[in-house]
Write a structure and sequence with these properties.
elongated, two-stranded antiparallel sheet
């Protein structure tokens, strides 16, 4: 169980650091406006489908979890 607690604490600290970085550097927050993210805006309808952003976040998380599993 101590391994899980350590993992959760480290994950929380990383998320806080990323949040502070995005807050302090506004140019980095263009993650939701990448080419390939679909945005449809009409008078009574607004649809947003972040395809590219989802793929990028998925690839980053997959690489992170693969790296963590290799370090054990």
């Amino acid at each position: 169980m101590p391994g899980l607690a350590r993992f959760l604490v480290v994950t929380g600290l990383v998320l806080v650091l990323v949040g502070v970085l995005l807050w302090l550097v506004p140019g980095l927050s263009s993650l939701g406006r990448l080419p390939g993210d679909l945005r449809i805006e009409r008078p009574n309808l607004r649809v947003y489908v972040p395809i590219t952003t989802s793929l990028l976040v998925s690839a980053a998380l997959t690489a992170l979890f693969w790296l963590v599993s290799r370090l054990r």
